Amino acid sequence: MLEINSIRNGIVIDHIKAGYGMKIFNYLKLNNVDYSVALIMNAQSKKLGRKDIIKIENKLEIDFKVLGFIDPNITINIIKDEVIENKVNLKSPEKIENIIKCKNPRCITSIERNIKQSFYLADKGIGEYRCIYCDEPYNESQIV
């Protein structure tokens, strides 16, 4: 049986869509830290069937917009003295900047330097984002 102890102070990123945990782990650069981190993949979940979980034994500044963009169903638990101090349920952000890159070679962001890569939420139901400059749809492989 797999056993991962509770954390004393830190963050638990829960209800991550199965397979997305590594994406978040890499985005947060958790492979380069000097504190305890647990990435649990394909854990059983009554709600999701399978899910990933990340436990971080440290305080960490996290951009909730980015995590909400990657998976809007994530729950973030802030842990203090082994008790959940705060619980945050994420959602898809209406606008994101410099998280993904427009793939349209004719887009102004491909031609001009120093222009923010900005996308808006076009369809919340399917999580579709589009470039605010050229309306090019987002492709999941484009995370900056």
Automatic annotation (TrEMBL):
Keywords: Metal-binding, Pyrimidine biosynthesis, Zinc. Residues 2-90 form the Aspartate carbamoyltransferase regulatory subunit N-terminal domain. Signal peptide: none annotated. Pfam families: PyrI, PyrI_C. Residues 95-143 form the Aspartate carbamoyltransferase regulatory subunit C-terminal domain. The keyword Zinc applies. This is Aspartate carbamoyltransferase regulatory subunit.
